Amino acid sequence: MDGEAESWVNNSLRNQTAFVWEDEVPVSLACRNRITPNGVGISVVYIPNEYHRKGYASACVAAISEYFINKGYKYCFLFTDFANPTSNHIY
Asked: What is the pLDDT of residue 66?
């Protein structure tokens, strides 16, 4: 990973704008985007091809949602591409 990418990852993890789901190795990434007084937006869910269809995206989004609900937010809202049936099914 180049220095710019590594810096983005470190800053995003520290600022809680990106979250990594691991199963011995990183298998999914999702980002927090907008925060409202009552809710948190989640988007940019990424799973490398070799980890597709194993439930990692669902687990990652569920864990992030639970994390923010436990921090006092009332709900999470998710963004997806209507043309992507997999992400629409997960959300």
From this structure: 95
Q: What DSSP line would sit under the chain, residue for residue?
A: --HHHHHHHHHHHHTTSEEEEEESEEEEEEEEEEE-SSEEEEEEEE--GGGTTSSHHHHHHHHHHHHHHHTT-SEEEE---TT-HHHHHH-
Domain map (residue ranges) of the chain: 3-90
- The CATH number given to 3-90 is 3.40.630.30
CA distance 85 to 73: 28
pLDDT tens for residues 5-50? 788 888 888 888 889 999 999 999 999 989 999 999 998 888 999 9
Q: What is the pTM of this model?
A: 0.80
Q: Which residues contact 90 (CB under 8 A, 6 or more apart)?
A: 45, 57, 58, 61
